[in-house]
Amino acid sequence: MFVGDSMTIGSTGDFTWRYRMWQHLNATFDGPYRIVGPRHTLHDPVEGAATSSAYADPGFPDEARRHLAGWGEGWLHMAPLIGDMVRHHDADTLLVSLGLIDLGFYTNAEQTAENVRRFVDGAREVAPHIRAVLMPVIPNVRAVADPAFGVACERFNELLAKAVADLSTPGSPLLLASEPDGWETDRATYDGTHPSEWGERLLAGAFAGAMHQAWGVGAPYDGMVGGGAGGGIALSR
User: Fold this and answer.
1) Domains of the chain
2) Which label site among 36, 47, 167, 173 has the fewest CB atoms less than 10 Å from its CB?
């Protein structure tokens, strides 16, 4: 289950890093799998709601579009939801990219870190053996223009690393993904925050690399070149 904010849900016309991960899993995962979640649409900036189905690749199948991500949603919003979502959709692995929106609008670094712990507790309450990969906050253009916000991002990432170390267990492992190699705001985003096609690939690569190195899932990410759709890949069942 993909869990995230606007960087994960994507907007009308995006491929999304979820799409890149779907491609990667189809190419490298040895066995059946399911992508699960209660939502499947993109954010429509005209309507201001998650109502768009206009993915850049219309061949991206609906069952692979599933996610738990929302424009303007963060750890604050997902922590109360995750238990029910894991239960209803039988998720066993969470790929999570959250925090920027929390720090920008809702909570300070310490409060945001507490919501990380609430999130993990909520998921484990219904699935004690769940595993998760957590992405640190990737500083955006605001972190450069607003030094206090940049400091908050750095502080939260320190607290996130501590939470992962404290909470990870052999039976329910947590991984802290590395900030994507080569992330340069001008190239990796189209507006200073949201991932461009290059940024989508970098995000997918960071998650894929963490899962492969720690759990032997798939293979090292090999999607950094080529066109958008990378056609001909079908969803495993």
Assistant:
1) 2-215 (3.40.50.1110)
2) 47
